[in-house]
Amino acid sequence: MAVDLAPSPALADLARRTATFIREVVIPVEERHRGVVRSEDVRRHLQQAAKQAGIFAPHVAREYGGLGLDMLGRAAVFEEAGYSLLGPLALNIAAPDEGNMHLLEAVATGEQKERYLRPLAAGEVRSCFAMTEPAPGAGSDPGALTTCATRVDGGWRIDGRKWFITGADGAGFAICMARTSGQQGEAGGATMFLVDAGNPGMKTVRHIDTLDESLYGGHVELAFDNCVVGEDAVLGQVDQGFRHAQVRLGPARMTHCMRWLGIARRAQDIAVARAAERRLFGSRLGELGMVQQMIADNEIDIAASRGLILRACWELDRKESASQSTAIAKTFCAEAIWRVVDRAVQICGALGISGDVLLSRYLREVRPFRIYDGPSETHRWAIARRVMRRHDAGAAQ
């Protein structure tokens, strides 16, 4: 079946306007703050500017103030937004809010959408997704979930510990995954709960010091201790949390890839500009064979990453499982984007590791992507298992 990847005129125009907005409005702010912003004033300023430019919340349904793009449409716009570390924040498509909006649109009740999705889509509040736990709890293996939710009069009591909860600092609410049946290690029995920030049973334990710093709201360890919520806090169906989470995980992995691909392009542009102007050994740096190889390899990694993203998004838009294509794309992109930024640093030499350009910041930001959303090793294991199952199924026929 033919796959037409050419954007419509309207989508191409939106991508162009996003690219212009990032260069003219966002990058000056990024450079002033060295890529790391913790100010609500700055966040609100950037988001208001994006609203005025008509590019805000492109992924959200028009009913909730967005532009209603499908996954292929998001690929074009999110990559342009990701050209700056602050671009996703400005367009309200940064993790974890973007993935949470997608989940709420798909799973929440009408009342929950009004209470949580609408203000989140408008940038009035932020959110977090409380899934990962300290060892031996849930991480790459969600079935290791230890946080429990127990029925009480009028609702549920949540108890457990979460860590590496991105964006939790200042979030208006959390989507918390807790076990409501079964035992640790079992694939089912989890439920998602909406927990408001003011709940006295949800407390910040600490801010985790990490290699990356640009994700707004940081990475936080949370304690759920006698955290009581009502029946209306259940997101989706009881005991169906892992199934509902799949609605979020595949698309969220792809949107991560889209955003970081923008940074890979930015790093390549910085390196190429340096190679064009810097003269060594009687010629421009970009005329030396080893530098040309790095420039070429960067172009190959960028193009291959984009192709894998588009293929996975095409499958997602067709409502296919896309488990294999999203795992392949996530694994390749996480490693390819790291290679691109690392080569860009090498091409720029001393300038690359200095604070005069943001390449060293980009290097610190993209390295954790090989761990976030499932480490490359876990995805490779899953990819290989699917291949073996396909072989076994064919052999049995």
TrEMBL record:
EC number: 1.-.-.-
Subunit-structure text: Homodimer.
Acyl-CoA dehydrogenase/oxidase N-terminal domain segment(s): 14-124
Protein's name in the database: Acyl-CoA dehydrogenase family protein
Domain Acyl-CoA oxidase/dehydrogenase middle: 128-209
Xref: InterPro entries: Acyl-CoA_dehydrogenase, Acyl-CoA_Oxase/DH_mid-dom, AcylCo_DH/oxidase_C, AcylCoA_DH/ox_N
Enzyme class, first EC level, given as a word: oxidoreductase
Gene Ontology MF, one: oxidoreductase activity
Keywords from the UniProt entry: Flavoprotein, Oxidoreductase
Segments forming domain Acyl-CoA dehydrogenase/oxidase C-terminal: 239-387
Superkingdom, natural source: Bacteria
